[in-house]
Amino acid sequence: MLNDRGHNNLWLRTSRENDDHSALNRDETADVAIIGAGYTGLSTALHLAERGLKPVVVEAAGIGHGGSGRNVGLVNAGMWVKPMDLIETQGEEWGHRLISALGDGPRLVFDLIERFDMACEPLQNGTLHLAVGDKGLSELRDRETQWQALGAPVNLLDAGETASLTGTNAFPGALHDARAGTVQPLAYARGLARAATEAGAQIFTHSPATRVEKRNGQWRVQTPGGVVKATWLVVATNAYADPAQPGLLAAPMQELTILPFFQFATAPLPEDIARRILPERHGCWDTRMILTSLRRDQDNRLIFGSVGSLEMWSDAAQQAFARRTLKQLFPFLGEISFEAKWQGQIGMTKSHLPRFHMFAEKAIGVCGFNGRGIAPGTVFGKQMAAYIAGGEELALPLTPVEPAGLARQRTLFYRLGSCAAHLVSARG
Ligand SMILES: Cc1cc2nc3c(=O)[nH]c(=O)nc-3n(C[C@H](O)[C@H](O)[C@H](O)COP(=O)(O)OP(=O)(O)OC[C@H]3O[C@@H](n4cnc5c(N)ncnc54)[C@H](O)[C@@H]3O)c2cc1C
C-alpha cells in the first residue's frame, strides 16, 4: 500500500519492523478514537495507553502510509522557523514553550526507540545543515547565534570540517545540531505501533474513517468493517487526509499547502567509496530554497532527495538530475545506479508552524508540520494524550481551522516551480 503507482519506497523494503495489523471487522468502544497511524496518531495512542486509557486507532492504509513512512528520517530539534522569530511571532510564553518541547523532541524519540528496542537504525550524532554559498553561510551564522543564545548545542563548522564530515568541498560550512540524528522512518512508525499495541492500544489498518459524527455525547467513527465509539476523537491525518471527505475528516487539508518531496536511493555503495561519503553517516539538508537532502542508510545506500513531484517529469530527466547532483558533490562515485525512488506530501502552513485544533468538543488534532514531523509528531502525540487524560497544556494554543485562501494555487506553484528548476539543472 505504501507504494504509489510507479514509485518504489526504499523504507518499505528495508524495514526490520513489521506491520501485522489487520482491518476492523466489528464495532469497538474506546476512550479515544484516533484517525491516522503516523507518528502523531501512534504516539497519542502509546501515551494514552500508558496512562491507562483505551485508544483505538483506525488507519486508511498501512502503518506509516503517509509522511511517516516516506520521509528522509532526519530527527530534528526544532522547526524551520528560527527560534527568535518564533518567540517574536508566538510571544515569550508560547515561543519558549514550543522551543523547549521541540528541543527535547529527539531525546523523546531516541528514548522510545531504546525503551521498546525498535529496529529502526537509530543514530543520534547530530545533523548537518549545509551552507550553499555566502548567503547560505550567513543564514546559518544567524541560526547558530540564535540557538547558542538559548543554550542549544548547535555549532557552525568551517569549510574543512564540513568537507571531512560530508566527503565534498561543495559547502563553505555547515550547522551541526548535536541534539538531532536519523532513523529509518517507516521502521520507527512501525516500532511505535508495536509499542502502542504492547501498552494496550488497538490499531486497525486498511480501515479508512468514512464518516465521523457525534451521537448522544459519543463520537462514532465509521469504517467499512465497523464503528469505533469513543468519548474523545483525535484527528491525526495531516497531509494525507482526503479533501473530498465529509466534515472534519477533510478539515486539516483546508489550511495546508501541499509541498511534494521525492527521494532516490542508490544501490549499496562499495565499502571503499561509502567510507568517503558522510563517513559518520550524518543526515544533511542544504540552505537552497528548493532544498536537497542527503544521507546514507545502514546498508550504504546514498539517499538523495529534493522538493518536487515525480509525476511531473520523465524518468530519464529525474535520473539525470539526481545523477548530475550526486556527481557534482562526489566526482569519485563512478557509475551510479538507483535502486528506489519514491515521494511524499509535506503539509505546509502559512506561519510555517504546526497548528493544534479543537474541531468540536472533545475532538482535537494537529497538522502542518512543514517537513519537520518525526520528533514534533511524537512530542505532540504525547502532549495530546496528556491533554485528554490530565488536562495538561499543549505547546501551542488550540485554534479553529483557518482555510488557506490560495492553498491549491500555491500547491500547483510548488509542483511546477520545483519541476522547472530541476529540469534546468538536469540539462546543466
Ligand atoms: C518526503 C518527505 C520528507 C520528510 N522529511 C522529514 C524529515 O527528514 N524529518 C522530519 O522530521 N519530518 C520530515 N517530513 C515530515 C514528516 O514525515 C511528517 O510531518 C510526519 O510524518 C507527519 O506525521 P503524522 O502522523 O502527523 O501524519 P502522517 O504520517 O502523514 O499520517 C497520517 C495518516 O492518516 C491516514 N489517513 C488519512 N485519512 C484517513 C482516514 N479517513 N481514515 C483513516 N486514516 C486516514 C493516512 O493514511 C496516514 O497514514 C517529511 C515528509 C515528507 C513527505
List keywords for this structure.
single chain; 12 helices; binds flavin-adenine dinucleotide; 9-stranded mixed beta sheet; 19 strands; 24% strand; FAD/NAD(P)-binding domain; globular; 428 residues; alpha/beta
Written account of the structure:
The protein has 428 residues and is an alpha/beta fold. The chain has one domain (10-126, 179-424): FAD/NAD(P)-binding domain (3-Layer(bba) Sandwich), CATH 3.50.50.60. It has helices at residues 10-14, 39-50, 83-90, 92-103, 105-115, 133-149, 159-166, 185-199, 271-274, 315-329, 374-390, 407-427, and strands at residues 28-35, 55-58, 74-75, 127-130, 154-157, 174-177, 181-182, 202-204, 211-215, 218-223, 226-235, 257-266, 283-286, 292-296, 302-307, 338-348, 355-360, 363-367, 398-399. Strands 1, 2, 8, 9, 10, 11, 17, 18 and 19 form a nine-stranded mixed β-sheet that branches. The chain is globular and about 65 Å long. The two termini are 36 Å apart.
